C-alpha cells in the first residue's frame, strides 16, 4: 500500500514546473474553513479555549466531527506549496514552518506535525528531488528532530493538562515527549496490549466481538449528523472503546479511551483466526486494487489523493487495522474533489483558453 512508484503514479503527471497555486489555494481555503466551522459548532470562541479542552474535544461524540478533516487538508496544501516553491528555499521554509504551526495548534493528535511532514516527504520523493536534497541535510534533520520532540512534549501536556497547565521547562517537555513515545513504541505500550488481547481472546472465545470491528469499519465513516437526522438513531459507538479488560495488563477499563489493538488485533478480535485471515486477504486486495487504479488514471489530482490516503492510513492501519480505511479513502476523495473544483474555477475565471492536463 505504501509503495508509491514515480513510474506508476507520475506517468501522466504535469512537470513540476507547472503551476500548482490553484491547488494550494483550494486546499488551504477549504481545509481551514472546515476546521474553523468545526470549532465554531463545538462552541469554542478562540484557539486557546480549544487547546485548553483538547482532550475532552477529542473523545467527545462530535456531531460534525467530519469537519476535523480540514486540518489534514490544510496541511496538505502547505505540503504542495513547499513543492511548488522548490526553487525558493526561503519560501519553502516559510511553508514548512506554517504547516508545523498549523499541525501543532489545530490537530487533535499529539504528533500533529507529522500530518505535515509525512505527506511532504512522499510528495517530494515523487515530484521534487531538489526538496529531498535540501531537507535531508544534517543541519536540517537534527533541528527538525528537536522540534518534533519539543512539539510532542508540548502537545502532550496540552492534551492531558490543558493549555493553562503547560510547563515550559525543557526537562518537563522532554519527559512528556518520552512518555508519549513509550506509549507507542515500548514493550509496555501498544504491543503489550496487543499480546494481552490475543492471549485473552484465545483463552476465552466469548470475549470475541462477533463482527463489531468489521461493522465499525463501515459505520464509523458515516458522519454522526447523518445517523441522527436521516437514520433517526445514535451513531454506533467505537468498537474498541473501553476494551481495557482485553488489552490492559491490570484489566483497567477507561470508557473514554478507544484502545488501539494493532493490525492483527483488529482482525483477530471478531472471530479469531477466521477473521484474521479473511480480513487480511480482502483488505489487502482492496488496497492493491486502489493503488492499481491510481496508477492507471494518473494525474496530479489522483497523485495528491493517493498520497494523503497512503500517509494517513498507513500509520492508522498499524494501530487499528482496517477500521479507518474508508475514512481515509474519503479524505483522499475530498482532496480529489477540491483539486478538481480549483481547476475548473481557474479555467473559468482566469485562463479560459488554457488547456490543462491534470
Q: What spatial form do the alpha-carbon principal axes imply?
A: globular
Most strands sheet: none
Instruction: Please give the alpha-carbon distance between the first and last residues.
Output: 23 Å
Number of beta strands: 0
The percentage helix is 55-70%
Oligomer: single chain
Unreliable sequence segments:
1-17
Number of helices: 18
Radius of gyration computed on alpha carbons: 21 Å
Strand fraction? under 5%
H-E order: HHHHHHHHHHHHHHHHHH
What structural class results from the helix and strand content?
A: mainly alpha
**Whole-number average pLDDT?**
85
Descriptive report:
With 358 residues, the protein is mostly helical. It has a domain at 186-297. Helices cover 68% and strands 0% of the residues. It contains 18 helices and no strands. The protein has helices at residues 6-9, 21-41, 47-52, 54-59, 69-84, 89-106, 114-127, 129-135, 138-161, 170-185, 190-203, 212-219, 224-229, 244-247, 262-271, 273-297, 300-320, 325-349. α5 (69-84) runs parallel beside α7, α7 crosses α17 (300-320) and α17 runs antiparallel to α18 (325-349). It is globular and about 65 Å long. The two termini are 23 Å apart.
Q: Which descriptors apply to this entry?
A:
mainly alpha; single chain; 68% helix; 358 residues
Summarize this structure briefly:
By secondary structure, the chain is mainly α.
Topology:
Elements: H1 6-9, H2 21-41, H3 47-52, H4 54-59, H5 69-84, H6 89-106, H7 114-127, H8 129-135, H9 138-161, H10 170-185, H11 190-203, H12 212-219, H13 224-229, H14 244-247, H15 262-271, H16 273-297, H17 300-320, H18 325-349
